[in-house]
Design the sequence.
């Protein structure tokens, strides 16, 4: 099991390894309470057009922006140019140069476009952005994105919102083994055990949104994810024993029923 | 005069500033970003940018997202 090192992204240290998305909650108040219950220090948000004809969107109205590191995403971008445009607008809207780079041209599976993501990452790094790219669990691409100057890599566990857990486990292992930047497993983590498993594999953090937002009780589910992440961190600190094919007796097998010690 | 905001036509008085437009629309200027004819406007300049007939504005803000 990989030893645990402090999580630092672009010079900022995080004590919570659980990052939380703010989409799809039933109400702004439930979202804010769930975010608080998760213990997170970083939340993702999305940028959208204001509706000229209707009252202001309230989805973030209950969130205390000053309490969390804000990570705007470029969701909706279909190519590098659109992603760079969204990132620039986000920077103007909230004075942060951090961006979760997402380029997802395919609306069915929302899988990231590798070449456009790399192209956008290169441009955004040159423009001074701290780039956290959402990516398929491709170990070669992870290296290329790190070499391009990305602050982290964010490989997917399974498609966004699918709650299917670590379908990319073997690739994630390789990404983690080769990583020179923090690895944040993003997308598809549907249960607290999935988040724990990602951290036990050696990931530095996880990002969860749908699993918390669409639970019957999002606040309780946020607490569950917090507990799972903390349990996995403790396990990393404790250091797990090795696995074997054969049994290793937990009780002495000698000195009883005629077997000599 | 007529301006285009997020693809919709809006009728406003001439001489309107960007800040006045946001107020008029009931939109807070915090956590809002604006492209004015394709160029991003810094928030400090919202009060000094005056709108002209047929200007195109893209006004965006943050919503919940993952």
Sequence:
């Amino acid at each position: 099991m990989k030893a645990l090192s402090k999580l630092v992204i672009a010079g900022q240290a995080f004590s919570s390894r659980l990052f939380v998305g703010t989409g799809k909650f039933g109400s702004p108040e439930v979202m804010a309470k769930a975010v608080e219950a998760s213990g997170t220090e970083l939340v993702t948000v999305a940028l959208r057009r204001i509706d000229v004809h209707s009252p202001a969107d309230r989805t973030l109205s209950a969130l205390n922006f000053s309490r969390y590191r804000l990570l705007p995403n470029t969701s909706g971008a279909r190519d590098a140019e659109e992603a760079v445009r969204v990132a620039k607008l986000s920077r103007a809207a909230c004075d942060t140069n951090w961006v979760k780079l997402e380029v997802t041209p395919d609306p069915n599976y929302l899988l990231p476009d590798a070449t456009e993501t790399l192209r956008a990452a290169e441009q955004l790094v040159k423009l001074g952005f701290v780039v956290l790219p959402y990516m398929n669990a491709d170990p070669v691409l992870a290296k290329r994105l790190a070499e391009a100057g990305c602050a982290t890599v964010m490989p997917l566990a399974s498609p966004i919102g699918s709650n299917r857990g670590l379908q990319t486990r073997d690739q994630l292992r390789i990404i983690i083994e080769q990583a020179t930047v923090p690895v944040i497993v993003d997308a598809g983590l549907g249960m607290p055990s999935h988040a724990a498993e990602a951290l036990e594999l050696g990931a530095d953090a996880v990002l969860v949104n749908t699993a918390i937002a669409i639970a019957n009780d999002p606040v309780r589910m946020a607490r569950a994810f917090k507990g799972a992440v903390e349990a996995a961190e403790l396990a990393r600190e404790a250091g797990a024993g090795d696995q074997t094919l054969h049994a290793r007796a937990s009780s002495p097998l000698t000195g009883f029923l005629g077997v000599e010690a | 005069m007529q301006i285009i905001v997020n693809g919709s036509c809006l009728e406003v008085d001439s001489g309107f500033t960007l800040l006045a437009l946001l107020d008029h629309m009931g939109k807070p200027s915090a956590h809002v970003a604006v492209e004015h004819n394709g160029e991003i406007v810094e928030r400090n300049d919202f009060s000094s940018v005056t709108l002209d007939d047929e200007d195109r504005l893209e006004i965006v803000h943050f919503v919940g997202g993952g």
